[in-house]
């Protein structure tokens, strides 16, 4: 369900449809595990991740209803999408003390979720993104140089509405297990930062799901080996260097929303 999007309602619906299109191919690639040519090893480390990765992709593909979400924790709920306005908090009182508009303004993000709510909040900035990549797939694939993604190329895969919606649904289904700006470790957005994560944190990182689906969708087959130098590395080695790492500003807030 899409709320308060006015003339953008059809665009959000199309973005969701476009985001679901590569999921069947992503499921097929995930079932191959580290034999997949689309970076499964970089994003999820080992074949032990096949089961949770395929389960997550199926949840997103079907928008599987889940319980324990406000406003009715006992009812099965699918993710619902709200285009945020100054009065969203008043119009949707189930958000409690969480103020989606203030988060959009203060954090400058494209979209965000709050654990325990059934909503995905789309900020005005979300609609400054292109709906989907247009052009030959190779144009959008990051290059690997010396076993690391070339800097400043992650935005070519990341900054599209269809992939941001996948990212937010990963947050939705990961719920309290999800990395965010307030977790330890925090959520990261760079290609190399995400490839550098441990196996456990890779599964907790919506950006890893985001990049994996995008690489499958764009037929990208070049990814580093996360078990060879320069991996693993201290966070400062690949400091923020691209739009993906500095401006994505996705927000996943762990807060008391009663």
Low-confidence stretches: 238-258
Helix/strand/pairing category: alpha/beta
> Could you say which overall geometry the principal axes of the C-alpha atoms support?
globular
> First CA to last CA: what distance?
23 Å
Helix content: 25-40%
Strand content: 5-15%
Question: Strand order across the biggest sheet?
Answer: 1-2-4-3-7
What is the typical, i.e. mean, pLDDT? Answer: 86
**Multimeric state:** single chain
Order of helices and strands: EHHHHEHHEEEEHHHHHHE
Spatial extent as radius of gyration: 17 Å
How many DSSP H or I helices? 12
Biggest beta-sheet profile: 5 strands, mixed
Number of E-type strands: 7
Structure in words:
The structure is a single chain. The protein is α/β, with parallel strands linked by helices and 258 residues long. 37% of the residues lie in helices and 8% in strands. The strands form 2 sheets. It has a 5-stranded mixed beta sheet, sandwiched between helices. Strand 5 (144-145) and strand 6 (148-149) form a beta hairpin. The chain is globular and about 50 Å long. The model is unreliable at 238-258 (pLDDT under 50).
Write the layout of secondary structure elements.
Elements: E1 2-3, H1 9-20, H2 23-31, H3 40-44, H4 50-62, E2 80-83, H5 88-91, H6 100-107, E3 111-114, E4 119-122, E5 144-145, E6 148-149, H7 155-158, H8 161-174, H9 191-195, H10 199-204, H11 206-217, H12 243-246, E7 251-253
Parallel strand pairs: 1-2, 2-4, 3-7
Antiparallel strand pairs: 3-4, 5-6
